[in-house]
Amino acid sequence: MSEVKEQVLQIDDIEAMAVGTWILGTGGGGSPYLNLLNIRELYAAGRRVTLKDPMTLPDDALVAVLSSQGAPLIGQERLADSAMALKPLRIMEEYLGRKFDALMPVEIGGGNGLHAIMVAAATGLPAIDADAMGRAYPEAQMTSFAVANLQCYPLAISDIRDNEVIIHKAHSWKWMERASRKVCTEFGSQASTCKAPRSGKEVRDHGILYTCNKAISLGEAVLKARKKHTNPVDAILDECQGSRIFTGKVTDVERRTTGGFLRGRTVLEGLGTNTKEKFSLDFQNEFSVGSQNGEAIVMTPDLICVVDSISGEGIGTESIRYGQRVDVLVLPAPEIFLSPRGLELVGPRAFGFDFDYQSYFKDQK
């Protein structure tokens, strides 16, 4: 029997992880700051999080897949709370008649990247170093588990008013998205969820592995650059093998919360080498397509990350505002989403655009 690989996360690891998840969130997943505050309090009370290597999971381990669901803008009004985040996990355990062995985030992006870490600190359950997106996506079917056609149900969802719903069965991942989104919208476009439970084998075979440590390493690179007074944006590109697409100032933001999503567009006016050029970013919770001078040049599933030009801090679709100086970066997508099935679920047509995916990275297949 192989030795179990695990690490106890220190608070500095989690501070760095918050920086990394906000960048990997591609504008979505909600701000990690409030979850970080909750984790600081839990750590001050003596709680700790154990992060486990997914390859050590037994085949029959039961893993909870956790998230906050809804429009990121609402998260600025309904503050993150570890008790609310914990509720769907307990609801699912009661429904299954079995306790979970571990938990993981559905997405490593934004606040959802820290959501499962917060629940791990509150419960003592180990967190698995993996997620199902490698970033943030807005809909239930936009996961590596859906690409693999794994079972999409059951799902537990709850809100701050003690409303609790279990979706016992759904016809497909898209139907699960429709049903759970309707519930979430009725809850006020903000809810906590426990997605379809996954076995250890399913996580190993179909999860996006080692993304928690990826977020920690990314955050550490940014924090180190700030401390050394070097360029944090360059540190992001070096750490993630990405490219800078555009540098500019935000001149217009149009957004609306509808159907449980935050949708809209941001317009940038170029600075430096991009002077006199225009860049626009369409978003549905996350940035989905970037267009320069009216032509789409970058698109999902490539990661479109908007960061502060000075600090390298990630900027969310709910917080981007007029006058900000930003850099638009593109990072490579997880390979699974570049497959035909992956592109069907997360390519530009999945977001309503009338064109096929073209990778920004020409050598990517």
Key traits:
single chain; 365 residues; alpha+beta; CV3147-like fold; CV3147-like; 2 domains; seven-stranded antiparallel β-sheet; six-stranded mixed β-sheet; 10 helices; 18 strands; globular
How many strands, which pairing sense, and closed or not: the largest β-sheet?
A: 7 strands, antiparallel
CATH superfamily of the largest domain: CV3147-like domain
Q: What is the tally of helical segments?
A: 10
Radius of gyration: 19 Å
In the CATH hierarchy, the architecture of the largest domain is 3-Layer(aba) Sandwich
Tertiary shape? globular
Low-pLDDT segments: none
Number of domains: 2
CATH topology-level name of the largest domain: CV3147-like fold
CATH class of the largest domain: Alpha Beta
Distance between the termini: 37 Å
Q: What is the spatial order of strands in the main beta sheet?
A: 16-15-14-13-12-18-17
Average pLDDT, all residues:
94
> What string, H for helix and E for strand, traces the elements in order?
EHHEEHEHEEHEEHEEHEHHEEEEEEEH
Helix content: 25-40%
**Class from secondary-structure proportions:** alpha+beta
Q: Count the strands? A: 18
Notes on the protein architecture:
This protein has a 7-stranded antiparallel sheet. The longest helix has 18 residues, at 211-228. The chain folds into 2 domains: 6-211, CV3147-like fold (3-Layer(aba) Sandwich); 232-351, CV3147-like (Beta Barrel). Helix 1 crosses helix 8 (211-228), helix 2 (33-44) packs parallel to helix 4 and helix 3 (82-96) crosses helix 4. It contains 10 helices and 18 strands. The chain has 365 residues and is an alpha+beta fold. It is globular, with a radius of gyration of 19 Å.
